[in-house]
Amino acid sequence: RSTLFPYTTLFRSNGNSSHQTIVENLKQALKKWPFYKVRMSPTPDNIHRFYSDIKFLVELDVTNLYFSPVYDFKWKEENWRTWKEECFKVIDLVDEYQKKGIEIRIEHFISYTNGSDGRINPCGAARNYIGIDTDGSIWPCHAFVKFSDHRSWREKEWCLGHIEYGITRQEVRDKFINFKVEGCAGKDCYLNSPCHGGCYRANVDLEGEIEIHHKQICKYVEMQREVSAYYKTKIKVYDQNTGRSCICNNMCYQEGTSEEIIEVDPYSDMQCNCNNMS
After folding, report:
1. How many C-beta atoms surround the C-beta of residue 63 within 10 A?
2. DSSP string, 7-45
3. 230-248 pLDDT, tens digit each
4. Smallest Cα–Cα separation from 214: which of 117, 74, 7, 110?
């Protein structure tokens, strides 16, 4: 299912597909942790299967999903139109399940229904969380680690430091702490959506700096706001909790202790620290 795995086709070492194994393992995981969210990474080449892929997952009892487009690919106007049409079909599917008493939560349909979430940064990279490479080097987030770059960590432009030496390049971290995206402040989509200038890493890959938002994010936000308006009308969602309760809150399972987390109420006041980085 290439929407789920856009970068690789998953095969065993003997050349056989591992798809069915993944499906069976997912079923077992959902039995113990039904609150699991599945993240999708749509690309222009597979966006025409967005509806069928979500339907496939829902039929596996995945009821919490979110997605983020792979901006590195070349998106065309026709791709955005196709995705919008696919999203409308997905919303109709969600409506069908809701009428049966089954709640399907799709993060970005919900998060865009209530305008801005009050944050000023796209995420907490280099501020509230970091990524650490296998050599011990510290990065703003995992997406900044480039495995094809074989230089010393001291030579890499976005490296923050090393676990043995701490943060050695505060000036790089300060770019994230004092982040102000160029060309967005004051615009309607910036003020009234959860965009906040797009993904840092995508900005660097496509524009060279984290402060310069890439143009594809504007296309995505425009499309997503229209889709979410339909979602809000169709599903009649006006007060759903958008606190973004999330699997990262359950990384401290503490299995076998009195503090073990067994289940999570997605409509509670639980907040997700990785998504609320202001």
Report:
1. 21
2. S---B-TTS-B-HHHHHHHHHHHHHH-TT--EEE---TT
3. 999 988 754 444 444 444 4
4. 74
